[in-house]
Amino acid sequence: MDAALDMDVVRDDILVSTLPNIVFDGWSMTALRDGAQMAGYDTATMHRAFPGGIPELVEHFGVWTDRRMMVELDKHPLADMKVRDRIALAIRTHFEVLEPHLEAKRRLIAYLAMPQNLGLGLRLLYRTVDAMWFAAGDTATDFNHYTKRATLGAVLSSATFYWLDDRSEGHVETWAFIDRRLDDVMNMGKAMSAMGRAGRLLSHLPSPMRFARQIRQRSGTVQAAESATTHMAENI
Fold first, then answer.
1. What angle do CA 120, 141, 190 make, to 5 degrees?
2. By the 8 A CB rule, do 113 and 216 touch?
3. For the CA atoms of 178, 184, 186, 187, what is the dihedral angle to 10 degrees?
4. 96 to each of 60, 146, 163, 170, how far by Cα in Å?
5. 39: number of CA atoms within 13 Å, CB side?
6. Which residues have CB under 8 Å from 52's CB, separation 6+?
7. What is the C-alpha separation between 10 and 36, in angstroms, rounded?
8. CA angle at residue 16 from 12 to 22, to 5 degrees?
9. Distances 106 to 23, 89, 140, 157, 162 between C-alpha atoms, Å
10. How many of the other CB atoms lie within 10 Å of CB of 10?
11. pLDDT tens string for the chain (236 positions)?
12. This prediction's pTM
């Protein structure tokens, strides 16, 4: 078997076995070591799979969930859907993939709130929204490529906080929240000229400090998160 392919399988196996441990031990070497052992791998193999330790495990979690999201999206007739509906479906699918690992995701928010992990958090967010736009058929390579991802990143970030606290059956309140945010963005986008939109977006691209504050304010109310996203939409 191809060595690279084999190691990808090993990483997936260890990650899946580690996720339940994160609920109790957080994103830690203790959780990773126990997960590797539960998956049937020794410590040497664990280090070969994740030589960078926990940051590499976290990054693989992002890659793994994005990959599963794309597989699920391929089951839908995306070509027959409007772009807005494709994006809404992508966000919902993202959360459905995460649903069995909700508590691990909650712990991940705290992990990414640490200053040394800020860059990792931004990288994971960008990869996810980039995958969503790719699935939606976006081929833009100009300024719109970045503004679309910045806007979707703001929507996805606030929706994540909402989803983590949502106790409604089937997360129907989260889906409604996402629809409202996307409608805000779409309506505001249609109302402005291309020049005005570009100027406003330039001043509202997410900065690392803004992302850090958003994560650190995780304990705030869902209403606060919704208001923050509405403000972003109104300035796009």
1. 95
2. yes
3. 150
4. 18, 26, 10, 10
5. 25
6. 59
7. 9
8. 130
9. 9, 22, 33, 13, 11
10. 19
11. 455 558 999 999 999 999 999 999 999 999 999 999 999 999 999 999 999 999 999 999 999 999 999 999 999 999 999 999 999 999 999 999 999 999 999 999 999 999 999 999 999 999 999 999 999 999 888 888 999 999 999 999 999 999 999 999 999 999 999 999 999 887 765 554 444 554 454 444 444 444 445 545 544 433 443 443 444 343 33
12. 0.79
How far CA 205 is from CA of 51, 152, 158, in Å, comes to: 33, 11, 15
Sign of the CA dihedral with 140 first, then 87, 187, and 228 last = negative
* Residue 206 per-residue DSSP state: P
DSSP designation for 213? H
Side chain identity at 56, as an amino acid letter?
E
Question: Rounded distance, CA 159 to CA 95, Å?
Answer: 9
* Orientation of helix 143-165 relative to helix 102-112, angle to 10°: 120
Helix (H) or strand (E) holding 131: helix 118-135
d(Cα 133, Cα 234) in Å, to the nearest integer? 21
Quick one: CA dihedral 77, 78, 84, 90, positive or negative? positive
Sequence-distant (6+) residues with CB within 8 A of 127 are 62, 63, 66
Helix axes 83-98, 172-191, angle to 10 degrees: 150
User: 218 CB contacts (<8 Å, ≥6 apart)?
Assistant: 109, 110, 113, 161, 164
